[in-house]
Amino acid sequence: MTLFSDAMQARLAQLGNQFLAHSGDPVAAQQQALTALDHLVRREAYVMAYNDSFFILGCVLLGAIAVMWLADRVVAGGK
Fold first, then answer.
1. For the chain, which residues make up each domain, given as ranges?
2. Residue 19 contacts by C-beta under 8 Å, 6 or more apart in sequence?
3. In angstroms, rounded to a whole number, what is the distance separating the alpha carbons of residues 58 and 72?
4. Is residue 15 a contact partner of residue 40, using CB atoms and an 8 Å limit?
5. Which among 17, 19, 14, 13 is positioned nearest to 32, based on CA atoms?
6. What is the pLDDT along the chain (79 residues), one digit of tens a residue?
């Protein structure tokens, strides 16, 4: 995401207008909009990272199952 993309500019303008209606200070409203967007992007990045870690863990477990399935059986030494 870049600060200069059209979608980002539209979202910043929307959030800025909402914060401006509450506070009346345009500089503070713009800063609050940037902060809100920062928190939103961080939260989504954390969710995606959490999802990726589960995917990697699942792949590792499937690989372990394949190794166990293809491994030779070990028979205990008896008389």
1. 7-70
2. 28, 29, 30, 32, 33, 36
3. 23
4. no
5. 19
6. 787 888 888 998 999 999 999 888 889 999 999 999 999 999 999 999 999 999 999 999 999 999 999 888 777 776 5
